[in-house]
Amino acid sequence: MIGVVDYGAGNLASVTNALGFLGAPWRLVRTSADLQVVDSLVFPGVGAARPAMDQLRASGLDQGLVEYLHSGRPYLGICLGLQLLFQHSAEDDSLCLGFFAGKVVRLTTSQKVPHVGWNTVDVTRPTPGLEGVDGTYFYFTHSYVVQPTNRDVVSAVTEHGRAFVSAVAQGQILGVQFHPERSGRDGLRLLHQFCLRAVAETRTHAG
Amino acid sequence: MLAKRIIPCLDIAHRRVVKGHQFGGLVDQGDPVDLAASYAEAGADELVFLDIEATVEGRATLIDLVTQLARRVFIPLTVGGGVRTTQDIRDLLRAGADKVSIQTAAVGNPSLVSSAASSFGSQCVVVAIDTRRREQGWEVYTHGARRATGLDAVAWAAKLCRLGAGELLVTSVDADGTNAGYDLALTAAISDSVSIPVIASGGAGGPQDLVAVLTEGRADAALAASIFHSGRWTVAAIKDELRAAGVAVRG
Asked: Any idea what the CATH number is for the domain that residue A167 is in?
């Protein structure tokens, strides 16, 4: 079962619709207890860092998420679900989950911000879950970007006046700045790959 | 590099795609979900749906339509027409819209733009600006382009940017429906005065018009309706022409 984090503010419909379209079983995760019954987790991100973290703290889900991230189960963070993995976000000066060392800063570029539209993702190292992604267009909509302290976790970059980190990964944890659920066929393919990892995880647990 | 976006626009009435006719009445153009799916398949980068009736009774039908669209189409969906309150915006986002377009209500109540941006994030707040040329520059119109506001379009665009709008959908009412090309000076003037993306609308007749507005007109995206609905051009064929002209588009 794939868990989809519901922190109250985000629009979950696009992610749950995509999982439904792919035939993947999913359920919403609102509390730490909900995390016990899922084998994999998608954290869809739309919205601002501060209200999202406030919600996670209010429900106690922040601690549950940190434990989940260390549990070795698959995680896919999308946009805010990537950014919140870091220690601090300059968006409303917010403390985040701190799974990755580093911070989230405003995208400074000669180009327009927010960075809205389809841009190519350049995969910088082989990463499980990003097969077939290199050089492909995905849909972005954001004003902030992650700056990992340890550059080894960087899996992909994207160019918008300057290069910024568009994917990070470590073990079973994958975070992407773009929106696979809004990126047509290529996005559905990425989500499908995640679903396959989720199924493998379910089998391991069942076995 | 960020691609320029091609955005088919679908006018909706009674849960159907319609085309307004000059002498009154609406011409049925098909089922919105089927059309949306076929445009997405042909390479549309995004879709805009405008509820041209925007009646209170029609709202529930629109919400239901957005729900169905979001289950079948996996590219960004913008929905507008008669959006007046943050509750209207919340309802459309919950149904599966990625962005909501505000127009008339933003002029009467600019704080709607800032409150929507702080509640839902700038990324989902599109403000539509209908303009007509006047002696000096362009004037903002509301209520289906029937009511003049006295506002200068470029100054209004800059204010919307400060209020937290995420994108601007700029329509030249003069050019709309002429198929004679976008108002390049308008989109360039607005694009230069704001730091957010500008979607150009009104006047597309063929690929050369899209090339012009995305280069000389400095627009980030081009919206068109009749050239796609009539079957004169497919999104894929338009993109081939854009690529040949050196404009970066998604494959």
From this structure: 3.40.50.880
Averaged pLDDT of chain B: 94
Would the pLDDT of A47 be above 80? Answer: no
Task: Give chain A positions within 8 Å (CB) of B2.
Answer: 111, 115, 117-119, 160
Residues 6 or more apart whose Cβ sits within 8 Å of residue A60: A31, A32
Distance CA B157, CA B163 (A): 10
Q: Which residues neighbour B38 within 8 Å (Cβ) at sequence distance 6 or greater?
A: none
Residue A87, classified by CB atoms within 10 Å of its CB into exposed (0-12), middle (13-18) or buried (19+), is middle
What average pLDDT does the segment A43-49 reach?
83
Nearest to A11 among B3, B93, B166 (CB): B93
Task: For B46-62, write each residue's pLDDT tens digit.
Answer: 999 999 887 777 788 89
A108 at B interface, C-beta within 8 A: no
pLDDT of residue A192: 97
Whether ipTM tops 0.90, in short, is yes
The CATH number of B5-244 is 3.20.20.70
Joined tokens for residue B156: 């209004």
